[in-house]
Specification:
0% of the residues lie in helices and 51% in strands. It has strands at 10-15, 18-28, 32-34, 37-39, 47-52, 57-60, 66-67. A hairpin with a 2-residue loop joins strand 1 and strand 2 (18-28).
Length: 68
């Protein structure tokens, strides 16, 4: 299940260009900013910082990520 994700896990997610692939960098439990976009993460609503194979970072909720 996506809630059990941890750093290093390989994941995929839907992107405007199709399906993106990468890995989990970390579980974010506090607000942060990525590429100028605010990430409204909290302990009650964590998000996962992911990095594509090309090195681009993004934040996604667990339900948007597929492990594997």
């Amino acid at each position: 299940m996506a809630r059990d994700l941890k750093a290093g896990d390989k994941v995929s997610w839907k992107s405007h260009g199709g399906t993106a692939h990468g890995k989990v960098v970390k579980k974010q439990t506090s607000p942060t900013t990525i590429k100028g976009h605010k990430v409204a993460a909290s302990k009650d609503a964590p998000q996962f910082i992911v990095e594509t194979d090309e090195g681009k970072k993004a934040a996604h909720k667990a339900g948007a990520l597929t492990k594997g």
